Amino acid sequence: MTALAPEHVTMPVLGRLSPHASRAEQVAHIAEAARQIRLQDLKLVHHAGAGHIGGDFSAIDVLATLYGAVLNVDPDHPDDPERDRFILSKGHVAGALYTTLAAFGFLPVEELATFLKPLSKLNGHPNRNYVRGVEANTGPLGHGLPIAVGHALSAKLDVSRRRTYVLTGDGELQEGSNWEAMMAASHHELDSLTVIVDRNRLQQGATTRETNDLDPLDAKAAAFGFAVVEVNGHDHGELLDVLSAVPFRPGKPTFVIAHTHKGHPISYMSNNVAWHHKVPDEAQLEQALAELDRLQAEQKHEEVARATGDERQR
Amino acid sequence: MTTTTAPPVLAERGPIADQPRFDCRNAYVDTLADLARSDHRIVGVVNDSVGSSKLDAFKKAFPDRLINVGIAEQDMVGVAAGLANGGRIPFVSAASCFLTARALEQIKADVSYSDRNVKLCGMSPGVAYGELGPTHQSIEDIAWLRAIDNMTIVVPADPVETAAAMRWAAATEGPAFIRVSRMSVPAIFDESYTFVPGRATTVREGDDVTIISNGTVLWRALAAAEQLEAGGVSARVVSMPTVKPLDVDAVLAAARETRGIVTAEESTTAGGLGGAVAETVVAHHPTRVRILGFDAFQPTGSAGFLLDRAGMSPDGIAEAARSLL
């Protein structure tokens, strides 16, 4: 392994889509972003010798969808008070967030080469004072959802249309603070709030079922007053449709259970608990890069074809 | 920082212990409502603590701007951080024991480390809930928060200082913790008082010994100085409302110009104002320091009883001062 260096950072900046882009164009944009983010993030983790690659790869499709086509955020005006807010509650997947922010112009791509290095702005957990586009300094679990509720309350007080999205891990929902916040969210009828759960069913050392079972998660969220939607968390078209369509019930916050696999789509990583924060060696890196290149390109073709077909049918 | 000498209100009023007493929570709610009238960003955030924070009038005046998250302190502080993200200035009002202990990680990560403009108002701190026992007493809050970077800690001594600290907090971007007691205290400052964070006020001149204090104990320190004077001892009384950042100059002046320092506060003896003063003199000008406070979980009793018992009656503080001569 060679230390992370500028030559390992090769990701293109993808820019913003025209507001008039078709759904097929949006899906293609998101799929390409997800492909580039995974390729780059894998190199970061390999060369930095640390990171949370399993959780990163579980969450990247959600991140790419949000930044690629859902969030009303602008890298040229990152502090616009009327921007949508995205809060990454599972702060340990900072590598995926940094790479996503770089892909969409919030973070200089070359800065990714400092990931986890001494005095780098790119700490193992995100810091909003160092990285544009980061909304909260997360890392300890169970913090993002209450912060998101607070922001959604501020939007309601302002009679603003700005929306709040928060991504939590599923294991993270074992923290009681989330359920405190969910009670408050439905009590205050915060329908501009969308909670996305990265439902990969694995936590650091075991499955969520073995550790402290969350099921029936849908019924629990519904009982806490949320409109609950389930999606394939790796399907860009499905994610786009759901995340753009919120709220599903006026007056109710939305709870999106995104079914994912940790380490997706790498054959030796996917759904394998060992890859919570393991670092791929040289051979594993090569294999993963090759698989990614092929699988993500195939997925993009397939998704775009499907989206184009959908549009023709309409 | 320059130490200011003041406050004229104390002159020629007679013994401090005989003065009328005020509940600082009234100044708290009046000031909060006043601030809210002139600044739409101000909101209150509570954990079912409307009554105990005396916020009924605020709730009536600004029903939408008093956000009650229920009995859920972690959520309360996270919500405050999110409100600040949305441009609001939240004043979180909750019993200090629950606010600081239950939500300590949210205070650290969501407020201080995230540098959010959140004002944490620890109501009824120290031994204000004396009879309710150590679960409700909050003698540890200052020590806990002193250890966290990017947090200004203010312990006002009377209604004027409470209001002044709140106005400063509302006008100044960044995290702050303000302790607001339910224990009645005599007025020490008059309306000419200006609160400057990190600045002490010499409320009584003296050159034999110094008593540094704040909050509900400051008037007791003044009463102790009155006693000492009657016995021929000239005690300086330094009001130190800001525990963090500390007025280092005022502490070092006391260390150089008097024969010893007594600290007296409604806090643990470990890590409070006394700890901050001791750390300062040890590093820059070693001198004798007697730290008065609470060194253990406290038994049941009124706040006054517990303060007296811990050596912070005027007699007790005077005796500690004499021990340094």
From TrEMBL, chain A:
Domain Transketolase N-terminal positions: 32-277
SUPFAM superfamilies registered for this protein in UniProt: Thiamin diphosphate-binding fold (THDP-binding) (SSF52518)
Transmembrane portions of the chain: none
Pfam families on file: Transketolase_N
Molecular functions (GO terms): magnesium ion binding
Top-level taxon: Bacteria
PANTHER family tied to this protein: TRANSKETOLASE (PTHR47514:SF2), TRANSKETOLASE N-TERMINAL SECTION-RELATED (PTHR47514)
Protein name per the record: Transketolase
Organism: Microlunatus flavus
UniProtKB/TrEMBL annotation, chain B:
Superkingdom of source: Bacteria
Family from the record: Belongs to the transketolase family.
PANTHER family reported in the protein's UniProt record: PYRUVATE DEHYDROGENASE E1 COMPONENT, TRANSKETOLASE-LIKE PYRIMIDINE-BINDING DOMAIN-CONTAINING PROTEIN
InterPro entries according to UniProt: PDH/Transketolase, THDP-binding, Transketo_C/PFOR_II, Transketolase-like_Pyr-bd, Transketolase_C
Pfam (any one): Transket_pyr
Keyword Translocase: no
Cofactors, names only: thiamine diphosphate
UniProt keyword terms in alphabetical order: Thiamine pyrophosphate
Domain called Transketolase-like pyrimidine-binding: residue spans: 22-187
UniProt-recorded Gene Ontology molecular function terms: magnesium ion binding
Name of the protein in question: Transketolase
Source species of the chain: Microlunatus flavus
